[in-house]
Amino acid sequence: MKKEIEQAHEALEYDPNASVKRKAVVPGEIIVEGEDYLPGEGTKRQGENVISTRLGLAEEAGRVVRVIPIFGAFIPRKNNVVIGRIIDITFNGWLVDIDSASNSFLPIDEVPHFINKNEMDQFLDIGDIIAAKIWSIKSKGIDLALKGKGLGRLEGGFIFRIIPSRVPRVIGREGSMINLIKEKTGCNITVGQNGWIWISGTSVENEIKARRAIEFVSEKVHVNGLTEKVEEWFQENEK
Amino acid sequence: MTKEFKRLDGRKYNELRKMTAKVGIIPNADGSALFAFGNTIAIAAVYGPRKLHPQHMQDPSTGVLRCNYDLLSFSVEDRKKPGPSRRSQEISKVTGWSLEPVIDLEAFPNTVIDVQIYILQADAGTRTAGINAASMALAHAGIPMKDLVCSVAVGKLDKDFVVDLTKEEEDFEDGEGATDFAMAKLANSDEFSLLQMDGKISPERIKELLNLVSESSKEIYEVQKKALKEAITHE
User: Fold this and answer.
1) Residue A70: its chain B contacts at CB < 8 A?
2) Residue A55 CB partners (closer than 8 Å, separation 6+)
3) Beta-strand (E) ranges in A70-215?
4) Residues of A in contact with B222 (CB under 8 A)
5) Which range marks the domain in which residue A18 is found?
6) Fewest 10 Å CB contacts: which of A92, B102, B139, B219?
7) CB-based contacts of B28, cutoff 8 Å, min separation 6
8) Domains contained in chain B, CATH given
9) Domain holding A43: CATH number?
């Protein structure tokens, strides 16, 4: 049963174009009745029914029911790419603020090339912005790593924040939404799962346009066929 | 016993005051809500889950729910001296206890969820309005919960039970004396998470009183649900 739920989750990567019927649910509300359904993320079984445990949009995919959250703080998961700010340097790594409840730490060993321990601030100094991957989550804190494509220090551009629960729709299915925005504005964009977004482009106008497009997407919560809407939005805002 | 009487403001014995609910009133908070019973207005803001300071309060097995309830200085007729009082500390505690059973705190070890409740205008029933607002604000903050909490107070006018007292009714001393019984109930089950009484009620009549609250909390639940769903569709 657990495997089935996991598979359904993989198939259920957020698709802004899918015309799945979604309905708003509040915690404790019965989503579906009967033993035929399996409780997915944001839901649980109570007696014969599947109830919601979060405020959001409920959707069914085959037998699995889940709730897409719409509000809320960032809850870290393994393998999330996040954007953070260096807040301290210790003898064997850096402390990073990623806007989550626990400390996150980037060990020197998780940086892909050699770094002189006496000159760690040459590589990452306090206040620098990095994109990193969550390597492990333990009770004492979160470990980050820089091993991966597109990870490392972010130079130039600017960062801003959106509500973390809206990140999946900004990215879209297999990156469809973010690729569209990148294509239309010609900007480099890194979206952290913690809701921090970094944009760097050839001109300030393009950067601001990309930011406005992302804010447009994150505000449209319950719209189906969002990619088309964004294309329309770009046409309207063409100068 | 006859129930065919009208109260000072024209309500029936089981009629609540006009309820107002709104979600997302504080942009800086992770979740926020306003809830009003007539002239009693409560706002709640939720922050977190976030790191708990001071560190010695952290619990590696579970998260901590920290509630703070207070009346604002201008919410009552005689100015309320700002800052915590014996009364507000007690209500903060019982509010926390009434909300804890629905929240999945074990999902957030070492962290705290801060709930701030402020009363903008007080006309009796402030703790119940505060609990209703806090329950909505927690849902709005995306915290995993198994249910919403609905809260209302029942009192007595002589021998008759009436729900959702106003200040005037609460101060009515004649007959059997003033009684105010604040209760909180989980919306979709028969569990109660707060029972707090001033005054006296005979034990045989408790059941009658709980039924009264169960009926009223259904109305409150509908109001909360509507406001939360509006927050989604109006985004």
Assistant:
1) 142, 232, 235
2) A25, A26, A27, A69, A70, A71, B139, B140, B142, B228, B231, B232
3) 81-90, 93-97, 104-107, 129-138, 141-145, 152-153, 158-161, 188-191, 196-200
4) none
5) 2-69
6) A92
7) none
8) 19-233 (3.30.230.70)
9) 2.40.50.100
Check CB contact under 8 Å for B108 and A101.
Answer: yes
- Contact criterion met (CB < 8 Å) for A71 and B102: no
Cβ-Cβ contacts under 8 Å, A219 against chain B: 235
**pLDDT exceeds cutoff 90 at B4:** no
Mean local confidence (pLDDT), B32-43: 97
**Signed CA dihedral, B216, B221, B224, B230: sign only:** negative
Q: So what's the pLDDT on residue B25?
A: 95
Interchain pair A103, B225: CB under 8 A: no
Band of residue B195 on the pLDDT scale cut at 50, 70, 90: very high
Q: What is the ipTM of this complex?
A: 0.88
CA distance A65 to A36: 10
Q: What is the mean pLDDT of residues B83-90?
A: 96
Closest CA to A208 of A196, A199, A217: A199
Q: How many domains does chain A have?
A: 3
Per-residue confidence at B1, pLDDT binned at 50, 70, 90?
A: low
